[in-house]
Amino acid sequence: MKVISYNVNGIRAALTKDFIGWLKVADPDIICIQESKAGNDQIDVAAFESAGYRSYWHSAQRKGYSGVGIASKIKPKHVEFGCGIEDYDHEGRIIRADFEGFSVISVYVPSASNIDRLGFKLSFCDDFLDYIKALEKTIPHLIIAGDFNICHEAIDIHNPEGLKNVSGFLPIEREWMTRFMNDCQLIDTFRHFNNQPDNYTWWSYRQNSRARNKGWRLDYAFATYPMKQQLLRAAILKEAFHSDHCPVLLELSDLKKTGS
């Protein structure tokens, strides 16, 4: 079982850069997408179908903004659009697909360009933590993948000292990430396999940052503790160039497939 998460920074733009060709080669069973920036009626669902995927989208009410999706080769038993909190759901932040024996969430945590938006981001984070804790009572096998807009540790950012007062690496954000992982008993699957520095998933378009690898690790694939023995591999797919982010990959064993 291969799960990929990818902030595409606009699915329509990504599709013009041979996203579907890349998807066929990467060949995940499930892909979680963030920042689709398109209404459901603007997404080329047929292109995903041509590659063998059913796709489900939760778009923002605001045009050209936010939005998440899940595309899967396996037919879900159920798809949940949003988390039931209107302030977040109208921005298209969370979508969940339930399969036989496990569920997958694609999440796009808000960024915080100003102090007012930081408050919104932190409220989202706290409510999302509570949502996951409640969900785990009925769905213990859970994969939570997406763009969290937070670097957890100093190893996850290229200049931890210089960026310590910048949103995405603020102490309060990093403390929340630790609490999220501990309270929800989550494994950061990339760090489960790789403790090396200089592994990032987002680079600014400015100052040739990607070529210089001056990046941030903002994208994660978390798995709940009961899935630990099923984890096989996690990786950052730096060769994909459809966005200012790159995808993250998680491979697992022994997940039941149904309805494929």
Instruction: Give the CATH architecture.
Output: 4-Layer Sandwich
Which parts are unreliable, with pLDDT below 50 for 5 consecutive residues or more?
none
| Count of individual beta strands | 14
What's the CATH C level? Alpha Beta
Structural class: alpha+beta
**Biggest sheet, spatial arrangement of strands:** 3-4-2-1-14-13
* String of helices and strands: EHHEHEEEHEEHEHEHEEEEE
CATH superfamily name?
Endonuclease/exonuclease/phosphatase
Mean pLDDT: 96
How many domains?
A: 1
**Number of discrete helical segments:** 7
Morphology: globular
The percent range for strand residues is 25-35%
Distance between the termini: 13 Å
How is the secondary structure organized here?
Blueprint: E1 2-7, H1 11-15, H2 19-26, E2 30-34, H3 45-50, E3 54-58, E4 68-72, E5 78-81, H4 86-89, E6 94-99, E7 102-108, H5 115-136, E8 142-147, H6 171-183, E9 186-188, H7 189-193, E10 202-203, E11 215-216, E12 219-224, E13 231-236, E14 248-252
Parallel strand pairs: 1-2, 7-8
Antiparallel strand pairs: 1-14, 2-4, 3-4, 5-6, 6-7, 8-12, 9-12, 10-11, 13-14
What do these coordinates show?
By secondary structure, the protein is of the alpha+beta class. α5 (115-136) runs parallel beside α6. Helices cover 24% and strands 26% of the residues. A hairpin with a 2-residue loop joins β6 and β7. The chain contains seven helices and 14 strands. The mean pLDDT is 96. The chain has a single domain (2-252), classed as Endonuclease/exonuclease/phosphatase (Deoxyribonuclease I, Chain A), CATH 3.60.10. The strands form three sheets. Strands 3-4-2-1-14-13 form a six-stranded mixed beta sheet. The protein has a six-stranded mixed beta sheet with strand order 5-6-7-8-12-9. A two-stranded antiparallel sheet has the order 10-11.
